[in-house]
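fwd from M.: "can u put these together and see what the complex looks like"

so here's what she sent:
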Amino acid sequence: MTEVRPLSLLCELTYRCNLQCPYCYNPLDLDGYRDELDTATWQRVIGEAADLGIVQLGFSGGEPTLRRDLGALIGTAASRGLYTNLITQGTFLDAARIAELAHAGLDHIQISLQAPERELADSIAGTVVHERKLEAIARVQQSGMALTLNCVLHRNNHDSIADVIDLAVSFGVRKLELANVQFYGWAYRNRGGLMPTREQVERGLQIATEAKRRLAGQLEIVYVLPDYFENRPKACMHGWGRAFMTVAPNGRAMPCPGAAAIASLDFENVRERGLAYIWNESSAFTAYRGTNWMPDPCRTCDRREIDWGGCRCQAFALTGDAGAVDPACELSPNHDVIVALRATGDRHPTLVPRRMREAASAL
Amino acid sequence: MNADVRPVFERGVRLRTEDDGSAMLLVPEGAIKLNASAAAALALVNGERTLDEIITAICTRFDVADSRARDDVTTLFERLRMRRLLVLP
């Protein structure tokens, strides 16, 4: 068996956030993650990641800039030669903070936008943030640091894709991710209100494809397809336990940020175990690694080492069995579940805003 | 592609060489695996060397014809330029 080595670690520093986006993929029980890892533990984990051969580090959350030790953690990562990405909503990026993070060795910032214009953006975020984000984008551009804009697409903002692209062009950023919402955590809870229509999805792809051609060499556009509307599943995380690790704010280590929802798995905590043990030997990371665990028809499918059986979190959420075929695949015996969920894009249920304390009532 | 452009990486793009000699290009939220000749060409990118100098060095190092090295290197650089990872001023 060839060695499987992790390339990327996502450090979810905190699930605290001042925004209330209903499409957040964080778990619903946010209140259960208040006991956050301290600085020294994160620094040990980052060192273990470098020892394990990881090359890419992401700092995310929640809102990672709420952690005052972010600069120190970036510094630790940079001293070990790791490439560092900050995934932020940008509302705390004043000039001093940008300078501090750049000085610590930060390589790249990704700022999320809710929509291209203020009224819609602020209504999605549940608070007044859009203007501050635009200011942060301008400041990061001015600093010269690599910047990516990201916009999660759903029914309420899908029709403004062209304006999002124009906004990215006007700031001169290098990369724009247009990511159709994936249904995990709060987004799964709110899928009825977030599901785009097929018309939106098809038109969005058309606009993005045309813009990609027109702006080649100026703006790289990544359009993330909505797998509810595809016939084959996405290669989620490039395969379970094949390239990615996530550590949640409370220290729980998982093969992907959504995996906490899989109640049938037992995840180790970095407070008690080293990353190497967790990657190589823990039951959660080895459970769906490779192809031996696969049911039919995945087992004999010629795409089994392309999509790696799709997404385990989605299989669990929709069938109750994390080892089932991803229902996004048209060959899944449960594909009709996905087909039925597409139709919820025709309804308009109320969205539940992402909140720390009211999670229990949202359930 | 003009022979005297002096390629330089965009901010946030770094070449990383492993202990076993393999190399990858680290880019925003990603890593591009490189074969030996691509890694050698990118290792010469510093904003000072010209495209021609890089091609000549690759010809010598890998014992390939100039036209072949020119095709390979310009294709690689153009691909990276289109993704805004490399500047060809």
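replying to her w this: Chain B touches chain A at residues 10-14, 16, 24, 26, 28-31, 81-84 (CB under 8 Å).
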